[in-house]
Amino acid sequence: MQKFIITGGSRLSGELTLQGSKNSALPIMAAAFLTGGVCTLDNCPRITDVYSASRILSGLGCKCTFSGGEFRVDASGAGGSEISAALMKEMRSSIMFMGAMIGRMGRCSVSVPGGCELGPRPIDMHLSALRKMGAVITDEGGRITCKAPGGKLTGAKINLPFPSVGATENIILSAATAEGETYINNAAREPEICDLCGFLRRCGADIRGDGESTVVIKGVKRLNGCDYTIMPDRIAGATYLSMTASAGGEMILKNACTEAMEPFLSVLEQTGCRIITGNDRIYLRCGARLKGIHDRIRTMPHPGFPTDAQAVLMAALVTAEGTSVFEENIFDCRYRHTDALRKMGADIEVLGKVAVVRGVKSLSGAVVTATDLRGGAAMAVAGLKAAGETVITDISHIDRGYENFEGAVECLGGKIKRV
Ligand code: EPU
Asked: What is the pTM of this model?
């Protein structure tokens, strides 16, 4: 198993071009199957979750090739409707293929998806929406089979009890070629949902309201393939900015989605960093010790503070002056990185969904284990600030979502080795 060895304690400085978004690329890859055409996805990140999605597409009969940052999928001859339990376990987004398969094939067979362990991650909202659209669903020992009577789902009015990102995406995929109109009320508004809809519209779908709470999808008879550029990854962006803010120094993030990152940037700015945004660039400079954040940082659905950026910002705030308080409202178990940060000297107290971070003057390197994707990245943020060497094991978690993580850190002048 590979590890990262980080030598911390130096300031960072450099320019970095942001990778394409994981959480956009994965549903768009599922959507490519739905189109039944040839799709070229530019700015597709080279990360292991994308490789897992590529294996699912190949298993369904698609021809997939990756060249540079361009992922090409030819779904024209594909006709699969089953995904093995082993592939389903590789990542949470495997569930997105459910909507794509039922939309294209009128049936599908999947099992409960895997993904980062952040507490219970049920799929009840996905299933009840599909049922509302007419799907007949059976669950035998964790194997879930969905069938659309007559091969087609029917549009419906769906009220989500919570704006789930995955459920919103799955409904959009299922509805794009269903009979009639589907309304999603209390839809998730994440920028990656707009990216999926942008892709589907280019393929001929009729979708309105994405980015707002009500999304309306009018089913079309058929979709076509297209060329599309995946949006930049706002969470990878938040990670590298947190790193530089914490270690001190300056950086320019290029190819950044500045608007999508605003909920994060507006909080980061309160630490005293200088941040200038313009076009697709973010400049950050941090000369002095960070200041703790006065208001409670509450993770919320977009446009609230993103849960995916909670761990990396916390890692930066552990050495800030004063106390910062986090409230995690999306996942039940998303503080698993705090043990590792404590081992490095952080003062963090977790009380249910609240984490109280009392800033300490310094951290020291330690041997820590990545617990999940963002938690692992948070350990690297802390490692670059800490005195001495930090060893992060189980870095396969980090590779799931960060393209060439060590290359990006080195671009900023950070000392990191993969061994
Ligand atoms: N939920 C249910 N029932 C459902 C669906 C969700 O109870 O049927 C609950 C979940 O258990 C969770 C909450 O609703 O407590 C939010 O889940 P959501 O469905 O919004 O999340 P997701 O689709 O599983 C995506 C991202 C996550 C990100 C969340 C929230 C992808 C591939 N994953 O997950 O990204 O944290 O939205 O923004 O898009 C990451 O990148 O590190 C990551 C975990």
From this structure: 0.97
